[in-house]
Design brief:
single chain; 377 residues; alpha/beta; two-stranded antiparallel sheet; 15 helices; 12% strand; globular; schiff base; Schiff_base-form_aldolases_AS
């Protein structure tokens, strides 16, 4: 009997099914209906009685109250979004005091949104507890002054769903979703992955083939563009791809600082999701809002190129430490730039003007011994 009356665990008890099945099975298996009967009847290890289950669909943990706090249109109007850095204490924990200061400098500089726990914010070096905590902290402290976009993407659809549920539950305004990386999937798999997370709230899809090893082709974006929560794409492939989307009315943010000016003013991009704005938010705001800024763009290009002389966020972490706005603490595997590159940054600051950068201290080269590398955190 036990081998016949089994089913997969994890589905919900239905009172009518349980009562009817118990009656049909006779007195030996009848149970009085009570609160205790709500728990599935265990028959053998990992098995549950058919009488105690019903095959309901999985219901995502969504709330219309949270989801409707910010409309998709509120996100698509943002021109300057900063992929914000996460600073650390010497033991590797978050330095929330320094983080709060960074966010305030972004608000003062004109940034309209921040990506929390993205590549620049080292979300991949966080536990999900840390990640969701930082999203919630940002919303609670700054959510009325800046849009908080949580990076809750993953190469596991199950994990992306769970993290996004949690992110919207703690109040984030939108989610950033990468395509599955390393364990790459098919075109149909990409569409299914994004369709699984889009119903939860406003969503930006992030295409960066240099990191994921797989381009998200236009066919995928067009397939999911009809979702009301589809805010747009952070696109790193280049101007031609940007133009392909903007011609179809799809909102695009450039993911490349050194291309964002032309993407914005020549190819129809809405704005930029920027690394450089961690350092010069006011100038990046001007670049996105003032059309006649080709000269400013040329002035900023050396900084933008320097920021990507090694994989991001190595240079940014180094620069913010040199400016004295964060402690010179790195979570491994990231290590600071070599001294010659640090000296180059000081010269770039002098060329652009110290007054245009965040913080008040003079830019310093710093000694190698000033940096703390943390392997356990």
């Amino acid at each position: 009997m036990a081998s016949l009356l089994t089913a997969s665990p994890g589905v919900r008890l239905a009172r009518n099914d349980a009562t009817a099945a118990a009656a049909a099975l006779g007195p030996a298996l009848r149970l009085p209906w009570s609160a205790s009967a709500v728990a599935p009847l265990r028959i053998s290890r990992g098995k549950f009685a058919v009488a105690a289950i019903s095959l309901d669909d999985y219901l995502p943990m969504r709330s219309s109250e949270v989801k409707n706090r910010t409309s998709t249109a509120d996100i698509t109007s943002l021109r300057l979004i900063t992929a914000v850095k996460t600073p650390y204490l010497p033991d590797g924990r978050f330095d929330l005091e320094a983080y709060d200061s960074l966010i305030n400098m972004q608000i003062d500089g004109g940034a309209e949104g921040v990506i929390v726990g993205g590549t620049t914010g080292e979300g991949h070096l966080m536990s999900w507890d840390e990640h969701i905590m930082l999203i919630g902290h940002t919303v609670n402290c700054f959510g009325t002054n800046i849009k908080v976009i949580g990076n809750t993407g993953s190469n596991s659809t199950r994990e992306a769903i769970h993290a996004t549920e949690q992110g919207f539950a703690v109040g984030m305004h939108a989610a950033l979703h990468i395509n599955p990386y390393y364990g790459k999937t098919s075109i149909e798999g990409l569409i299914s992955h994004f369709e699984a997370v889009l119903p939860m709230g406003p969503t930006i899809i992030y295409n960066v083939p240099s990191r994921t090893g797989q381009d998200i082709p236009p066919a995928v974006i067009e397939a999911v563009s009809s979702f009301s929560n589809m805010a747009g794409v952070k696109e790193c492939v280049g101007h031609e791809r940007v133009k392909c989307y903007t011609d179809k009315g799809i909102t695009i943010w450039s993911g490349n600082d050194d291309e964002c000016h032309d993407s914005r003013w020549k190819h129809g991009a809405t704005g930029v999701i920027s690394v450089a704005s961690n350092l010069v938010p006011g100038l990046m705001h001007s670049l996105m809002y003032e059309e006649q800024t080709a000269t400013l763009n040329e002035k900023l290009l050396p900084l933008m190129k320097w920021l990507f002389c090694q994989p991001n966020p190595i240079a940014l972490n180094t620069a913010l430490a040199q400016l004295g706005v964060v402690r010179p603490v790195f979570r491994l595997p990231y290590v600071p730039l070599p001294r010659e590159k640090r000296s180059e940054f000081v010269r770039i600051v002098e060329s652009i003007g110290r007054e245009n950068f965040v913080g008040q201290k003079e830019a310093r080269v710093l000694d190698d011994d000033d940096f703390v590398l943390v392997s356990r955190y």
